[in-house]
Structures are given as C-alpha cells and as structure tokens.
Amino acid sequence: MKKILVIHGPNLNLLGTREPGIYGHLTLAAINQKLKVVAKKHKVALVIKQSNHEGQIVDLIGGAKKNRFCAILINPAAYTHTSVAIRDAVAACGLAVVEVHLSNIYARESFRHKSLISPVASGTILGFGANSYVLGLAALVDLIPSK
Ligand code: CA2
Q1: Angle CA(25)–CA(48)–CA(87) in degrees, nearest 5?
Q2: pLDDT (tens digit per residue) in 103-123
Q3: Which residues' Cβ are closer than 6 Å to ligand 1?
Q4: What is the dotted CATH code of the domain comprising 2-143?
Q5: Residue 9 in contact with residue 75, Cβ under 8 Å?
Q6: Do 46 and 39 contact (CB within 8 A), yes or no?
Q7: What is the residue extent of each domain of the chain?
Q8: Active-site residue flag, 106
Q9: Which residue out of 8, 23, 79, 133 is catalytically annotated?
Q10: DSSP for the chain?
C-alpha cells in the first residue's frame, strides 16, 4: 500500500483548545481521524507526525523518500512564513508535496501573506478549515505516480 507522510507544524497540537474563531473547534486528533477515513477510501496508508521543532520537520521531509513515502501532506504552520530550511527540504525531497492551511493566510496579518513553501510545493490548499486537509489529501492521492 502507498504510504503518505502527514506533517503538522508548530502549535497545531493546541487545536480545539484555543482560537476556535480562526482555527475551528476540531482537535488535531479529530482532523487526523478525518484524514484516516479519506486515506482508507483511497487505499493509502498514512503516517502522521506533529512537531514544534524546525529541524525535526526538516529531518522528516528529508528522510521521507528513504523511508518509502510516496508523498507528503504538510501544514508548516508558523514556519510557512519563516523557514528557508523547510522550503529547501521540500524542494529537495523528490516527492509530491501538498501544503495546507486551515485559515486563509491572505486574509490575515500581513506577516502571514508570504509562504516560503508554496513556490516549491506541488500545490497549496487553504482557508477551508479542517477540510483543507481533506481536500489536500485527495489532491495528493491524484499526484502519486501509479507504479
Ligand atoms: O491556518 C493555518 O493552518 C496556519 O498554518 C496555522 C498556524 C499559523 O501560524 C499560520 O499562519 C496559518 C498556527 C498554528 C497554531 O494553531 C493554534 C491553534 C490553537 C491555538 C493556538 C495556535
């Protein structure tokens, strides 16, 4: 079965506990559950990680191909706007990568208007709450090479 790596960036472990007006009421566990349902439908396996540490996220992305993942779904969270290291890891990983965001970053503070990741991602889906992940995973499944 094809394996997809899902990476949740910093502070996404706090979902559902604070700022529901921006990020919704669902916890990260609830979003992961939704993703597992979609993955089952598409007959792909998911490995889901959350990290608050930039270097750890770089290592996950950098090791993905060697660890036999065929694609990556990532919400880089605040690192979206700051991390050249994560951008370089995405650009170098040799896999399809879909970037997702719960909120519409372009409708928020100006410091969130720039994503360093979008130019090197296969595509970006944002602004649909937890559904961004669901849509992103479906789009990613379509990008996976069939062999
Ligand atoms: O909209 C998104 O998915 C973001 O990636 C979420 C990040 C934010 O820095 C990006 O600009 C957009 C923040 C994730 C932290 O989420 C929290 C949830 C509850 C309480 C505090 C933070």
Answers
A1: 95
A2: 999 999 999 999 999 999 999
A3: 11-12, 14-15, 18-19, 23, 75, 77-78, 80, 101-103, 105, 112
A4: 3.40.50.9100
A5: yes
A6: yes
A7: 2-143
A8: no
A9: 23
A10: -EEEEEEE-TTGGGTTTS-HHHH-S--HHHHHHHHHHHHHHTTEEEEEEE-S-HHHHHHHHHTTTTTT--EEEEE-GGGGGT-HHHHHHHHHS-SEEEEEESS-GGGS-GGGS--SSGGGSSEEEESSTHHHHHHHHHHHHHHS---
- The strand order across the sheet containing 44-50 reads 44-50, 2-8, 71-75, 96-101, 123-126
What is the Cα gyration radius of the chain? 14
Task: Count Cβ neighbours within 10 Å for each residue of 68-107 and write b for 16 or more, e otherwise.
Answer: ebbbbbbbbbebbbebebbbebbeebebbbbbbbbbebee
Distance from the alpha carbon of residue 114 to the mean position of ligand 1, in angstroms: 14
Q: Which residue has the tokens 């649909």?
A: 128
The β-bridge partners of 48 are 6
Provide the β-strand partners of residue 5. Answer: 47, 72
pLDDT tens profile 12-45: 999 998 888 899 899 999 999 999 999 999 999 9
Residue 147 has a pLDDT of 62
Q: How far apart are CA 127 and CA 62, in angstroms?
A: 27
